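User: Sequence recovery, please. Input:
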């Protein structure tokens, strides 16, 4: 019995959709292995507003979250390549980096809940690399697309702890890169991405 034209068209469309899905999966798999900061084609985030950020009730000046100051995210170029925030004003930088600081605060609180220190002190989440400019990004061995340039990424360490899996759990809509040096990369790019570097 002859197969109807409509049935053939439906089958053709299903096959094309399957091919598309495979292509996307291949691109994702390639990105996972090769790409230092992931997803080069991702949409560029909205430009940060130039206005002053709303003062946060209960937070001292300069703080983006309870335990994170904006200055902790400063670029490590020491003024050689940028003003510390890759050309953003402090107000712009605070607005761009606040969601990241809040995510890191959530992680810090969770780390101290799960792995309390015997002496009652709190474990700190250290920002190894926050903002980067062209100069410091090159020194870090990254290409021009790094989220560090926008102030929405940090490589972090916690003394004596390997925290990669925790960030994976706490950052479903952002990037997490697992480094061999125990300083996972965490960013707030707005969609999930995972890779090893
Ligand atoms: Zn710099
Ligand atoms: Zn990074």
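Assistant: Recovered sequence (197 residues):
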């Amino acid at each position: 019995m002859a197969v109807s034209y409509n049935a053939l068209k439906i089958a053709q469309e299903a096959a094309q959709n399957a091919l598309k899905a495979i292509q996307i999966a291949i691109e994702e798999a390639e990105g996972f292995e090769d790409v230092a900061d992931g997803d080069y084609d991702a949409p560029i985030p909205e430009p940060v507003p130039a206005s002053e950020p709303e003062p946060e009730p209960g937070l001292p000046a300069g703080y983006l979250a309870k335990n994170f100051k904006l200055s902790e995210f400063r670029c490590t170029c020491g003024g050689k390549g940028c003003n510390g925030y890759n050309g953003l004003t402090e107000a712009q930088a605070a607005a761009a980096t606040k969601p990241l600081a809040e995510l890191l605060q959530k992680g810090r609180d969770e780390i101290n809940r799960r792995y309390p220190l015997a002496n009652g002190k709190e474990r700190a989440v250290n920002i190894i690399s926050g903002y980067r400019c062209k100069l410091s990004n090159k020194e870090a061995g990254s290409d021009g697309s790094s989220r560090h340039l926008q102030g929405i990424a940090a490589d972090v360490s916690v003394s004596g702890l390997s925290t990669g899996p925790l960030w994976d759990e706490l950052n479903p809509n952002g990037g997490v890169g697992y480094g061999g040096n125990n300083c996972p990369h965490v960013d707030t790019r707005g969609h999930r991405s995972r890779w090893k570097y």
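The beta strands are 63-65, 68-69, 125-129, 153-158, 175-178, 185-187, 193-196.
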